[in-house]
Amino acid sequence: MESKEITKEQALSLKGYKHACHIMLYGDTAAKLFGKIPTKHIVLMQMRFDGLLGFPGGLVNPGQESLESGLSREIGEELGVALRVSPEDHLSTELSSSPPNLVCHFFVKKMTEEELRGVEKAAVMASDHGLEVMGLVRVPLFTLRNGGGLSSFLSHSFIGNSRSQLLSALRTLGLVSHHDLEAAITRADKSLDSKAR
Fold it and tell me: What does DSSP say about strands 37-38 and 4-6: parallel, antiparallel, or unpaired?
């Protein structure tokens, strides 16, 4: 069963559901890999305690705090920075198919390259570093001649719907061209299929 997209307002009216909030921090960069390959954008994800890739965030209780303030609290614990999340940063809300009775709220926040570097530095000193969070990683949004880069990254294991959240955000924000994104997904899915055999 697929996750079902709903509005944030519909989600907040549900009874007996847990609410998970996660955020993708991103920004622009002029950096070039090996001085040649433009990276164009920085997108941060994290390696979790269970070896899966995901986004910073966690469970929030909307009866006690807003989704945004709860997510800001989670960011403080996981990344060691005070970061204000606003309603304008909300991108999507989905009813999770697994586990049941879980609503997943996804936010995106654009930052400067300097701010993102500050987050990366602070994350090493965060209270959850080395416990719930093993570290931040940058998503390679480029494709190398051998097919590596984004397609290799997408063939890793992700928690829950974080892979689909990443792809949705990349499409919505236009951080990767449609052609390049679809080619990376196709390569990654072929790699995953061959690993499954």
Answer: unpaired
